[in-house]
Amino acid sequence: KMTQQMRDLQLAQARKPPGPSSPNAAKRLYRNLSGKFRVNYTSFDEGSLVGRGEKEKLRKTYLFQSNAALFEAVELQDLDRVQEMLKHYSPEELDLNTPNSEGLLPLDIAIMTNNAPIAKALLQAGAKESPHFVSLESRSLHLSTLVREAEQRVNELMAQVVNEAPNADCSEKEKQLKAWEWRFRLYKRMKAGFEHARVPDAPSSVHLSVASSTSLQVTFWEPLSVNSAVVTKYKVEWSCSPTFSPLLGEAVIDKLKDLHFTIQGLVSGTVYHVRVSAYNMKGWGPPQVSTPPFAIPSNWREYDGRAPRRRGQAEALDHLLGQVKTVHQHCICHEPCKSQPQSRKHSVSKSLKHLFHPGSKFLKTLKRGLYLTAIFYRDDNILVTHEDQIPVVEIDDTYSCLLMQDFLWLTKVSCMWDEILWLRQCVTVSQSSCSCILQTRFKMLLAISQMQGLLGIQDLGQVFFEPIKDKQGNILIVTLKEVKTNQTFESVRWVPICKLQTGRKSVSSPEEPTALDTLLISLQDKLAYHQRSSHALSPGLYLGYLKLCSAVDQIRVLVPEQLPNILCHVKIRSNPNISREEWEWLQKMASVEEPVPSEPETDRSQNPLFQELQVAIKELMTLVNIPLQEAKDFRLYSQEVLDFGDQVSFLLLLPPSDDVCTAPGQNNPYTPRSGFLTLPLQIFELGEER
Hints:
Layout: H1 4-12, H2 23-36, H3 52-75, H4 79-88, H5 91-94, H6 106-112, H7 116-124, H8 136-163, H9 168-196, E1 205-212, E2 215-221, E3 233-239, E4 249-253, E5 260-263, E6 272-280, E7 283-284, E8 288-295, H10 313-334, H11 342-356, E9 370-378, E10 381-385, E11 392-396, H12 404-413, H13 420-429, H14 436-455, E12 462-463, E13 468-469, E14 475-482, E15 492-496, H15 497-503, H16 515-521, H17 523-532, E16 540-545, E17 548-550, E18 555-560, E19 568-573, H18 580-591, H19 601-604, H20 608-623, E20 635-636, E21 642-644, E22 648-654, E23 661-662, E24 676-680, H21 681-689
Parallel strand pairs: 9-14, 16-22, 17-23
Antiparallel strand pairs: 1-2, 2-5, 3-4, 3-6, 6-7, 6-8, 9-10, 9-11, 10-15, 12-14, 13-14, 16-19, 17-18, 18-24, 20-22, 21-22
Region (Disordered): 1-25
InterPro entries: ANKFN1, Ankyrin_rpt-contain_sf, FN3_dom, FN3_sf, Ig-like_fold
GO cellular component, one term: spindle
């Protein structure tokens, strides 16, 4: 007979019928279900269902079938099938942590048959051990009960098969006998696996680092031993005493996809010791003390009490903008254009009349001037006019050369697309001096308003970092925006990019393409740049390389093509925080004559940051094609750590003072390899903010 615990469990699981009665039946079940599992419940003809109750019944049937198939796949040690089901179904859909009629979970079967690959796959998906095994004795008793009852059932069926004459019933009992013999062998294997297992060894390594002024990060690795059972959870303990008495806290980690843990709520400046131990079905193993043996929560700002650079800046700028708006609105309301000459009023009136005239539309061709085009894309499609043209509007037909300062001013305007009407009013009021610059910028705002009105959308996206010029005297400013929803626009429609490129008839020669032809030819490159410029770095501490070059009207910065919104960089480590002790060491190194960190041989092994920087500097020098011996003249920027949010921070590596910025006409002795470009500094700053 089963124990009282198992009787209660069977009553609770009575709603779940037993799975396939034999290995062959199991194979047939999930072979037949292999195609069906990929079908969503809503893919059926809902008109054939009587009502909501039928749908729910069908859903539960599928959930049961997938759960039964998962048990059978684990029992048959079919790793491929287990991985496939975990990939296509969520833990809830698989009932991953609901015991079967024997009181077992898929993870129980995997660890007690010592199938480490399947057990690890289940653990990463969120599988847990059965809560009914509250002790080693209860697990042992439960396994003995399963083995005894399976053996008893085999003996009963064998006696019936031997004593009965051959008939249909006898054939069915032979099938049952084979199934129970197979299950008897499975339970015996599980029982033997449990009996021969031992507690796990200590984690092979435990690394402790300072995550912030109130937290520590613990990273650990699984035990090296392969003889013990699969580890199913870990325990992190911390204390102010090296003897761990008393304990200040502990945390049990049963989600094993990433083996790390952050201890929060600690006291800055206090010494903490940390250790980690592993657990399997035989219990907790010995703890492993961290390396280093202790850490002190801190942040580099505590070195001199420095406040965050951007604290309150956003709020102050918003307040300042509000004040500016108030002043200009008062001026517009009470002194409308009082100071403008009559000729200028006529010009503005004419421009506004043209903007709202029914004849206002997109241009098909360029005729020597300054133009604005807006590129909206979604997947491999792009927005075009009904004449299959990219949306283009005119800024100024008499503007022969684009001043870089006007272009950079427009890139800043792109941060305020919703404020164009207000900006137009501001520029209009301030034109009493008839400045050519103000006139050009006012025409830019008019063109933006026209584009917004024709498209029916305010946000035109990001300005590409350089305008397109041709030999016919045309200058084309390009904005780029990715549309991630099925959004509709006025006067335009979606077409495949390849169709637009192959269908357009060029009106220029290949030797002297127009700005529009150049745009179409380089469209994929521009879209790729736009997508890459919005990518974010993964959390961590990075070493960046600052290299500038100057021209007559701008300064440009070297960036990687794959991440043009970030300086050339390599990752130092995953922890973005620089502790106070590490910053003190960097300040000490900055005070010596050698710019690149160097320490006595005996101190190197005791300073992880030194080793990390040495590796990162070598990698960065290789990346930007600078001989490693030249690194001795480079310097680490020691004034501050550049923090980008809470998860990304940068240390800067600077060339010698004379080489930080290459002057016009000066040759750069070290040319970076392919995969880099130079951006105007103002464009880079805007991309960094985005």
